[in-house]
Specification:
Layout lengths: L13 E4 L2 E4 H18 L17 H10 L4 E8 L10 E4 L5 H15 L7 E2 L11 E9 L3 H8 L1 H14 L1
Helix pairs in contact: 1-5, 3-5
Length: 170
């Protein structure tokens, strides 16, 4: 999601299929809220940078919000998009070499859980959310325009399994 301007809502990637519109912001938030519940059940404190799908806070400011809240780990959840509907799979991005092992651990576990294509981990030093001072990863859960990825991500049981996997590996 790229809310680049303050007070301007950006739904992130979108895809329309048979007159149904799917928005990255809404799907990623469902995952975030589920992950929050899973982590809290494990007695882990959680700070959410947003708790509704229309939050106007630019993504670039969210790592700073977490930093100021005293977080030591930052997990940013997203959906990938590409004009090519055949693009598919899951990937974990990291910005600092210290986070490479965490990214790989999450990638391996998420591929095993989802059975989605392994797009490998990728180092990205240009993303604001990965400039967090502490452990930070950005998880691209799948491609919103790919039917298999989207169907997998919209399945509530799979969402629970993915969030359990993330919680177990961070």
């Amino acid at each position: 999601m790229s809310n680049r301007q303050k007070n301007i809502y950006d739904s992130g990637a979108t895809h329309t299929e048979q007159s149904l519109k799917y928005e990255e912001a809404t799907i990623a938030l469902r995952y975030g809220m589920t992950l929050k519940d899973v982590l809290r059940m494990k007695k882990i404190d959680v700070f959410m940078t947003r708790d509704d799908a229309t939050d106007h806070t630019p993504v670039g400011l969210r790592a700073d919000m977490a930093q100021k809240a005293g977080c030591d780990t930052f997990v940013s959840l997203h959906l990938n998009d590409l004009d090519d509907d055949s693009a598919n799979g899951i990937e974990v991005l990291y910005g600092d070499d210290a986070d490479k092992a965490l990214a790989q651990k999450l990638q391996d576990a998420l591929v095993k859980t989802t059975k989605l294509r392994d797009r490998k981990i990728k180092k990205r030093t240009d993303l604001a959310v990965l400039k967090f001072k502490g452990r930070a990863v950005l998880i691209e859960l799948g491609f919103i325009a790919n039917d298999k990825d989207r169907e997998t991500l919209l399945n509530a049981q799979m969402r629970d399994a993915i969030c359990q996997t993330i919680a177990a590996n961070i």
